What we know:
Blueprint: E1 2-5, E2 11-15, E3 23-25, H1 31-37, H2 49-52, E4 61-69, H3 71-74, E5 78-83, E6 86-87, E7 90-94, E8 97-102, E9 109-112, E10 120-128, H4 131-137, E11 164-166, E12 169-171, E13 176-177, E14 181-186, E15 191-200, E16 206-214, E17 222-229, E18 232-238, E19 241-244, E20 261-268, E21 274-282, E22 287-290, E23 293-294, E24 297-298, E25 301-304, E26 307-309, E27 311-316, H5 328-340, E28 345-348, H6 357-366, E29 369-373, H7 385-402, E30 408-412, H8 417-420, H9 428-449, E31 455-456, H10 469-472, E32 478-479, E33 501-503, H11 512-515, H12 529-533, H13 540-551, H14 558-582, E34 589-592, H15 615-623, E35 627-632, E36 651-658, E37 664-674, E38 679-689, E39 693-701, H16 703-709, E40 714-722, E41 725-733, E42 747-755, E43 758-765, E44 769-776, E45 781-783, E46 788-790, E47 796-802, H17 808-814, E48 815-818
Parallel strand pairs: 27-28, 27-34, 28-29, 29-30, 30-31, 32-33
Antiparallel strand pairs: 1-14, 2-3, 2-4, 4-10, 5-9, 5-14, 6-13, 7-8, 7-10, 11-12, 15-16, 16-19, 17-18, 17-20, 20-21, 22-25, 23-24, 25-26, 35-36, 36-39, 37-38, 37-40, 40-41, 42-43, 43-47, 44-46, 44-48, 45-47
Amino acid sequence: MRSFPLASVSWRFRDATEGSRWREAIVPGCVHRDLRRHDLIPDPFWGGNELSLQWIEEHDWEYSATFDVPAALIEDEHVELVADGLDTVATVRLNGRIVGHGENMFVAHRWDVKRWIRAGRNELTIRFDSAMRYIRSHRLDHQPKEFNDPVGRSQVLRKQPCQFGWDWGPRLVTAGVWRDIRLESWRGNRVESVRVTQHHGADGSVTLALEPELANPERGVRCYWQLAFDRVPVAEGTGTQIRIEHPQLWWPNGHGAQSLYHLQVQILRADGSSIGQWNRRIGLRTIQLDRHADEWGESFQFVVNGRPVFAKGANWIPAHAFVAGLGREDYARDLRSAVAAHMNMIRVWGGGVYESEDFYDLCDELGLLVWQDFMFACTIYPGDDAFVASVRAEAEQQVRRLRHRACLALWCGNNEIEGLNADLLKTPKLRADYNAVFLTALPDAVARWDSVTPYWPSSPYRSGGDNSHAEGEKRGDTHFWDVWHARHPVKDYEKWAFRFVSEFGMQSFSSPATQATFCPPDDWNIFGATMKEHQKNRGGNQIILDYLAQRFPFPAGQEALIYLSQLNQAYCMRTGVEHYRRLMPRCMGALYWQLNDCWPVTSWSSIEFTGRWKALHFIARRFFAPALASAHVPGDETATIGNYRRSDVRKVHLYTVYDAPKSAVGRLRWDLFHLDNRILAHGEKAVRLRYGESIRQKSLDLGPAIARHGRDCLYLRLALDVDGACVSEETIFLAPPRYLRMPKARTTVDLRMTGPRDAEIDFTSTGFQHRFAFDVRGIAHEASDNYFELYPQEKKTVTVHLSKAVTAARLRKLITHRSLVDAHE
């Protein structure tokens, strides 16, 4: 087969509605990126510019390319135009002839253009009609009440849902050739794919079964295969079976190596001639969604290579508001950060896109299991024959594209449609539409084209439609939003013993450095016009302030407010995750909302759009650590925020939670401190740490100390040592921090340059400082730790890698720091 790339030829675009002149374009790409590159629109992310760009979605756009085709290509029996992604309502012409149409952003197209292609100069034109006009003129009988759809009826078109706006993302409805486009020519037959099925034997061996999939059925074909590991060939042969006697297994992050084999399969005819070849990387592993009856109801856990794995991770949204043309490094930054925080699973949320090969390559390499939603979110979709046929084509392509991935753990039908539309789904027509897509078309595609990876109809989901919290304690997965959306107390996380929690979250403001990338200095106030446009959750600022008021003192200015919002977010997620981990093995997963941002915004992310880690991400690295010391303070907070009963807290239960594969022996330590730096009580206990165990190791009665000193003067320091090193440490308060009589402390900063862009920094404090946070103003940097505890007279050393070289003297001047006591007057 010959391939002729079209992304690298000269492209141009124009506004077809206005009939404007042609301008140079980049493919893959989108109209917003092209308009911005020519300075025809302002930066969509700056200020309130998003609102001034809504006209783009109402216009039609044309892309055109001229290119010379070699004569050898058109001499083949078949010449096809292959477009991996057209966004979205597209009419494609080659040399003036219509060769095809598209109405599904997630479907790749392959059109036979043999009769229209010619040697020498050719012209390809793609017209993208307004998505909004399509929505307003198609499937008019589909009018269910909308949820989270500011446009209305956007679900009648198979297009990235969050382009139309979400409660963390902008409304930037774009168009363009968003994935690769090329010509392919071939004779006789063509290799479409090879289905690889793994059989893991009791003796530890693995047998791979190969099933070639050709464009045209053909008898007598055979496979010649080569298998390599770490670039070294380990086996080759002919046939459809590959046996690996001593396989290197692929494991999720934290559980073993991410071993990947390179498999090359040559498909041969009976006469020995080649039809083509197929090359992929594969990981040898088994992944099951284990749902067996147990003492609590029915388990919901992922079992990898026979080992139940507690899923630690977050939800993934598109890496950018404009997904066209993203490359490996656009994904690597945040996925590597996920691994740095000990995550082992990413949920690709159903309101975005099926991600690129680069994304899944990285997940394979980094050991991030992928919970893969199909791209349906929140609202009820049509179920007419044409729509379902398009969905079937989409599902077949995506399943066949991703089924070989080592990281692929689950196919999930949709995000929250069952849970958000329970009443509407009682309507027979809407229920029939729903069933046609999510209980028929999608599971059929998974069964036919994968048959190994499990399918889950919705998230959250329980068969029978009972999405109550009580049922979530028995089976299925849960999205828990009582904290945040319902404004319940943070301690409500601890009310429920869910089996698997696939969404829960708390917003915070972005850092001043990220805020400066979109907001003019004269409009930095969070209630100002610009900040309002970069807070897409209705009432979001008020909810943040509501939670802050219950936990923290009044902030001393905007930067203090941002800092406290991030501390609150981290506290909420730590409370939830540590509770879910303490419940192990009843609960076997905690995926918080959300990992990343698609533009600079106030949101639930732990990584800002600029790549800066929020406090949450630093603290996630602690609460997701393999060996965790965790404290449960069983005080009672009522359902109404503000009625914190200060007399309830008396006991503190100390736990160890462990999910590293190798057992260990540790030492659990605790110290009760007075805020005047006195240690009032100390204890320690030798502990055994075994895989998959959460154990209450000690219960402390702090009643006498509270009665004598008052809870507002006390804090508990908890730590876990393994092999002489502290692997987990945290501070536990006995009252909300706003009540604490925390004195000011002096901080000493010493540093050593270990390279032109690398330094070690020592921080020492005369007193306790909670969530000590430092920054290097004006220089992007990566820190080994931040938002940590500074205990009295104990040195804390962190390493910093800077984006540019700097002298020690200059670095010292750029370092700023604050802790909780500095955040209020």
